[in-house]
Amino acid sequence: MSKQQDQDNARRARAREIGLFRYGLIQDALSQELSAKQPGRLVLAAAGYRPLSIVNQLRLLAHVSRWTESHNYAVTDLTVEVLEE
Question: In this structure, what is the dihedral angle of CA atoms 68, 70, 71, 73, given to the nearest 10 degrees?
Fold first, then answer.
């Protein structure tokens, strides 16, 4: 086999592995017995999403926003040195 064929075969094998992994994540959500909302919840849970994930991110964003405002910083002022204060 040529080097190009080896690379193509490796790429195809990797794509197949990725596809099987993704299918493994959602296979439970493909059940016909689930309600309309349940498949989405199962896929999100398999991907690591938890109901408080977005809440915690918004809390962190609000905290950073209040901190930058209290120090009169603009986004462009945020450097490693400033953040290490």
Answer: 40
